[in-house]
User: Fold these one by one.
Assistant:
Number 1:
Amino acid sequence: MSVAGARQGGSAFAVEKAWRLNPQVALRNEAFGALAYHYGNRRLVFLKSRALADLVSSLQQYPSAADAIGALVPEGQRASYRRALARLADSEVIDLDAR
Amino acid sequence: MPVDTAPPPLKEQFTRGLDAPICLTWELTYACNLACVHCLSSSGRRDPDELTPAEARHIVDDLVDMKVFYVNIGGGEPMLRPDFFDLVSYAVGRQVGVKFSTNGTRLTPERARQLAALDYLDVQISIDGATPTSNDAVRGEGSFAAARRAMDNLAAAGFGPFKVSVVVTRQNMDELDALAAIADSYGAQLRLTRLRPSGRAVDGWDALHPTAAQQRTLYHWLLERPGVLTGDSFFHLSALGEPLDGLNLCGAGRVVCLIDPVGDVYACPFVIDRQFLAGNVRAPGGFPVVWRESALFASLRGPQSAGACASCGSFDACRGGCMAAKFFTGLPLDGPDPECVHGHGEAALAARGERPQSVLGHSKIDRHGTPLPVPMPVRFRSPART
């Protein structure tokens, strides 16, 4: 049966906040990047590069998404990775980390 | 840039195969208490060589290691397996989600409450018509009432949104709205899948498969209802224009496969035939080695010839359609789908040779070994001509 609360939309992405890989999501690395499966809403999302998969897995180690991007993504590509994280927040692959 | 569902380059990656399946079908038993005319696995009799409970649990362990997030469990009727609940509980307990298909005959109020208590579990109740008359002509006497009782039981147990699963046929095309209404009445999701000429449907397909006009109607019906699930099974219809939701490719041996009740691994659930047998989970290394090292899967993951479809402007949309549909209608695998929306399949069917005779059925037999009759669709009226 469904897991409670799984069908509500994801949080609006704010790059200055702390994010994490949603605990309900499992990642599986593949040659193209990774598969992300959300056990709550049963959605499968494709992360289309290994670098993005690494970034998502590492978010929790940084005080904010901006810090993670700054540390892991080359300068010219940061805007596209911010957009990618925003879409992943929308599909609940990542969520706000209230630590 | 990164993320989200599949634009072409990613689709290309999928055709070369993944490290583990995205969507694995696992048929737990060939035993079935119904005898549907279109059963893709020709089920009926349990096979004496079916996997033991310990072997079945071992498959779950392999799936955990491979990070297969969920399995589609079917049969036969999976609830007839004595260890059904133990196995399902074991799988979801190890974070392998389960979506299982059932005819509902064994889904009692008590079973419904047990299912409702499990996380990561989805249930699909199969019906193939919106009325007892249309459904029972395909699935057998009393099967509609049994399926509705199962739905009532799930609803009463507070299971939440289950799925109502329908194979689209020439005879039930006019009932799609009524089928959607049945699903809606339970807060359930409607799931439509394509009739394949596999298993017992090798014989019934000519009379059961939708007409060309019905296929166009279905395509537009689906485009207007993105909430209706299709399991990616109508990708041949994407040649009509805008692609339908889903990966829109044949995932056989690349992102999907079938483990059958005796542990044989086939390229997809619709090609239970020796030609598409990749190996067996009882061999050394088990399922992971079959998935990674089978020669059949390696060839499916290699470059494929478009054959007679190479010059068609729609090839990128439909990729020549469904391998199983071609194989079991006796068409070349590198040519059009028998239900090609541009009509190329009809010409190919007219010119085809012998159709394959499957020897792998588990249909019920009498004491002389003769298959028992299944409810053939003799009562169907002719489809409306358009």
Number 2:
Amino acid sequence: MHLDILKELGNIGAGNAATSLSQLLNQRVDMNVPDVKLLELKDVPYILGGADVPVMGVTVLVEGDVDAQILLLFTKESSERLIENIVAGFSPNDISQEIRQSVLLEVGNIVGTTFLNALGSFTNMTFIPTVPGIADDMAGAILDSVLVTGADGNNIILIVIAEFAVKGEVIDGYLLFVPSPSSLEKIFNALGVSV
Amino acid sequence: MAGEKITVGIGEWHILKVSGILVCIGLGSCIGVALYDPIKRIGGMVHILLPLNQNDKDSVSPTKFADTGVPFLVDEMIKVGANKSVIVAKIAGGSQMFSIKGREDKINIGARNISVVKERLQNLGIPILGEDTGGSFGRTMEFYVDSGLVKVKTIGRGEREF
């Protein structure tokens, strides 16, 4: 039951994020949410293919009425394809590693804050995102560095499977919403579902 | 030769005797602690997530935390025959994977993990023979129980042995 609500929330957030991304890139970006899962933090590396798989992750901390964190994760291969699509038209030699990271940082920022806005209007709660941070490393290393108070690997997180479509090419990403245990309860209460 | 390879997941621990490889995959702010009795060739590894166990001690796994995890592993090794006075340690991990302006205090879990692990080892009189800690990158730590050798692998930052 509450997965349906969360999936709806994910879809609304994704729709809004796609609109913001389209405006930024001046080209059509679609975002679809085929699936939403609730998982324990420690089990997340398995959906990415293992704890040593190279991924790129952008994070924002969420403050205000909750203590939470948003992580947008792409496998290394997907992140490269997404960046290539976004910077298409530039010669690869002109695109430094720094620019690649900053492109992804901006994508993470937009997707993360748009999702938060959707969640905020659903729950009537206030969420304030920090500036984003980026990491380019092993999935396990990025996920064990989750910064939410009370996070202990067993806490439940919401994973929105996000398919980005840029120029018809589908690129898989994962949007993770990681609330502290007490924040998860607050949000579920606000949504009128039981934990 | 090296024998079986056992992955020690977050908050888990494992002990092997004489042969085999204990592995912590993808350490970020987490710390892998390898303890070794070189005489009996008993090796134990714990994959620590957080510095301090602030919960009811019985309700959670002690090996998730640096303060309770290190003494726990020593006790378990003694139970299977290790001699505490010869146990030595090698540690890896404790990175800060993200850097977020204005939230430095909140995100230095790795540094706190390192300091609590070192303090507990010192209290127990266990010397640290090698370490690869800190920085802002992930590590996979392999502990070869036949020799006590530790290999640390990274993405794009090479491999270290100690």
